[in-house]
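Fold these two proteins, one after the other.
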Amino acid sequence: MQPIFVPRTGGIVLALISLLLSACLFAPGKFTSTLDLRKDGQFSFAYTGEIHMLALSKLAEEANKAPESFTAETCYKDDSFDERPCTEEDLAKQKQAWEEEQARSAEKRRQDAQSMRAILGGIDPSSPKAAEELAARLRRQAGWKRVDYKGDGLFDVDFAISGRLDHDFTFPTIERFPMANAFVQIALRNDGTVRIDAPGFAPASGGEPFRSMMGAKDNAPPVSQADGTFTVRTDGTILANNTDEGPQTDPAGQKLDWAVNLRTPAAPTALIKLGT
């Protein structure tokens, strides 16, 4: 019977790549968000509060850990599963297999790092300056009035933008990022109807598939939990919505309010007719 040993490998980087490829890059924390839509097509959107870059710092830390040193595995007798002392030949074979596995792992980490940099617009998540590089990139973009990095993947932001709704709108967008999950999407239809969806404010269960990819929930980074409000104000005609209370009277017309937390039953959505 050959000596039995198992190479030690982890799924941390693989889980991160899977997370990024699913575009689950960001999640809201504590926040307040508002959207104002006028019949003449003017709009204003604001988001103030926390944005989590999901577990990126912890996963990058795991990916950058120094490789383990070689540790001999238990050897067994040929005719049973009784333990026996390992011979020099046993140890040589184990070490060769371990070195080959280390080489494969190093190449895989290199390829994964390239993939992560591509998905993150050239930002290297293993760099201690990665978070500030992302913050600086956001500060250059229109609407980002404040972007402060608080550590452990948490950003405190103040975003506000106004304009004319003659095109679709998505928040957030980040330059050079080929993909990023939307918190709020506004789609303009040809008949002047506007559809509002807030997939980023959906129930906080989206992190569970990621945690299961880690192999054991106890070892997975904690999933961000949203806690905030989303309010839409308009002088247009509200055709549909999924709020609990329905349209409420507002000095500027009507408003829709959603509480976003663990008890939120579904992502906010509404259909509003603008124009005369």
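Now the second one:
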Amino acid sequence: MSAATLPGFQPLLDTTHQALLLSPYLGAAALAAAGVWAAVVRRRIRSARAALANRTSVEVVPTTGFDPSEGEVGRFSHHLARVRQAAGDIPARGAAVRLRYSADGGRMRCLLEGPARAAAILNLPGFAEVEVRSTRPGQGIEPVRFTTATGATR
């Protein structure tokens, strides 16, 4: 009994023959897919490096009466979570917010650092009794001043 007379052997031979005929095309498709994957990875790496090189920071200084409630802390964490959305399509590693705490002369100091595309959100005060200062000149948001009917500025 030869292998050609076994039942089900002919479909196996036909499938093997088709696979051998298509192998150059499958190899080319695999190479093209690997090239596209490499290009996407390279773009994401460059985007993350550019975002890390172009970051902004603001200093958050609490006043003497600073005592946040639990609700204010929750709102501030939500406020920081919006930075990722404002950063757009920057990879997560480039859109992360860094909090740096220090104490200078007995006064707590907090620096918020994030992507430059989200500078407007970083400059918003997160707590009621906190002063936000831009640490780099020219990056601060100027406050809106309203003049009343008597000419006084608020």
